[in-house]
Design a protein that fits this description.
484 residues, alpha+beta, 5-stranded antiparallel beta sheet, 10 strands, 12% strand
Length: 484
């Protein structure tokens, strides 16, 4: 540990040859073809520039280099600080005297200039990262509203937030994590609205992360920030690829975290009500938005209850009212119902995985074949009952009414547990499965240590009303107040 600290605190010298020897050895420039260095003369002094091929703007770097080479000895400043302030015609300029920070900046794509006689390096942030267009995300689609989405470039994502919130209270802090990866992390929040104690806790947790790299980007960061009760399947964070949704969360006082190379924003803290909310709730009038939200709540509940309830009724046919006798199985099943449900739960996930890895040109014919073979023929063969296929088809399709994958799988795991308990213990098992699900939600905690069921527990009617019902937007209310 002490050797590592000494390595990080090493500083540059005023000898260009010593600095070049150290940097060439640290970067192994003879083997790394994309690390480019070139020795030039600036104002009568020998200098060397370093850059990463693929991150630099060739035209801009060429103009900067031409400007530096045109400097005469009588115009050379006394120190690098004056060089950065008065003699560098660029906006994002800095100086650095420690090797650890310098190599990190260089490997991030920053243009580095070393000059003989100066004990600091000039850093010019002229980098550009390869990125795709800010098109609408495939998963977080909206019928109305903006059609842009986050990309894998951190600066582009923060710019999309700045475009929507033109306030001096919007703060975007840069941090990094990972001993090797040095992954950039941006914290977005509104000063005066965010919980300062919670913000300090998030800062401390990110600073204390001791991992080699954030291999899986946001998921790696999430597991470092929330380490308690990892076995609870309910999502602790909400993710969105929509800039409008992220900006709305920032304005509500939440913290939005961006991780470089990840095209989505991490929102915290998050409750179960926050997870179910979607952008379409606010892009339609209050009545329509409330209907969409309540429908999503109801369907999420049905995806959990419909198959265990059907299994309970089939195991106890005497409980079924005469008016609902049509739900009874038309034929005696060849395979026990519990096994039919479990096999189909697994088969649905298999179809999802197959759909992800299927080339686009083959998706349509394979979908038709899967529908025929796994649908009609599986019933005709006697493996599955048509009623079971119907209810599982409803569950599979209804899961897509909300975009949060983690919530869908949390309900799936609890549904399977409830199915097994219902099969083994009947009504008491069915009730026990429901209580277990409520217990899992009730014992869960957000990253800010609040109740996962807030504002239901602890009860706050004003906050709960805004979560259940789509009320008028604050701007509309203020406009009405001004008219009266």
């Amino acid at each position: 540990m002490e050797e590592k600290d000494k390595e990080q605190n090493k500083i540059l010298t005023d000898s260009l040859q010593e600095n070049m020897t150290y940097l060439n050895q640290a970067l192994d420039v003879e083997k790394n073809f994309d690390i480019i260095y070139r020795v030039v003369h600036i104002g009568g002094k020998e200098a060397c520039m370093y850059l990463i091929d693929g991150f630099c703007k060739d035209d801009l770097d060429q103009k900067l280099l031409q400007y530096f080479m045109d400097l005469t000895p009588d115009k050379m400043p006394e120190d690098m600080h004056e060089m950065s302030k008065q003699f560098t015609p660029y906006v994002e300029v800095d100086i650095e005297g420690k090797w650890d920070a310098l190599t990190t900046s260089l490997l991030s794509g920053v243009f580095v200039l070393l000059i003989d006689g100066y004990d600091k390096a000039l850093l010019i942030d002229s980098r550009t990262y390869p990125s795709r267009g800010v098109t609408e995300p495939e998963k977080d689609k909206s019928l109305r509203g903006s059609k842009d989405g986050f990309v894998e470039t951190l600066v582009s994502n923060t710019a999309l937030i700045r475009r929507r919130i033109r306030s001096t209270d919007l703060h975007i802090e840069m941090m990094n994590a990972g001993e090797t990866s040095r992954t950039d992390i941006a914290l977005c929040y509104m000063k005066g609205r965010v919980d300062d104690v919670f913000l300090d806790e998030i800062r401390r947790k990110i600073s204390d992360i001791k991992v080699d790299s954030l291999t899986m980007n946001q998921e790696s960061l999430a597991e470092c920030l929330y380490q308690r009760k990892w076995y609870n399947p309910f999502p602790k964070f909400k993710y969105t690829e929509r800039p409008d949704a992220a900006a709305a969360q920032v304005l509500e006082g939440n913290i939005v975290i961006f991780v470089d190379n990840s095209p989505s924003a991490m929102i915290l803290p998050t409750t179960i009500f926050d997870v179910i909310e979607e952008a379409d709730d606010y892009y339609f009038p209050p009545v329509t938005g409330t209907y969409l939200r309540m429908t999503r709540f109801l369907i999420s509940l049905l995806t959990y209850l419909v198959t265990p309830t059907f299994l309970l009724m089939m195991n106890n046919p005497g409980w079924i009212p005469e008016s609902f006798s049509f739900i009874m199985l038309q034929e005696e099943p060849n395979l026990p119902l519990i096994w039919q449900f479990l096999v189909l739960e697994l088969a649905i996930d298999g179809l999802k995985l197959a759909a992800i890895n299927t080339p686009n040109m083959l998706s349509t014919p394979l979908s038709v074949m899967a529908a025929l073979v796994l649908g009609e023929f599986s019933v005709n063969s006697g493996w599955f009952s048509s009623e079971v296929m119907l209810y599982m088809a409803f569950v599979a399709i209804a899961n897509y009414t909300q975009s949060n994958y983690e919530l869908g799988y949390a309900l799936k795991f609890l549904r399977i547990i409830t199915l097994l308990l219902t099969q083994w213990f009947g009504l008491w098992g069915y009730l026990g499965g429901i209580l277990l699900s409520l217990f899992a939600m009730g014992c869960n905690r957000t990253v800010s240590h609040r109740s996962y069921l807030y504002p239901l527990i602890p009860f706050d009617w004003k906050a709960l009303k805004s979560k259940l019902f789509r009320t008028r937007l604050p701007g509309a209310l203020n406009e009405d107040a001004g008219q009266h």
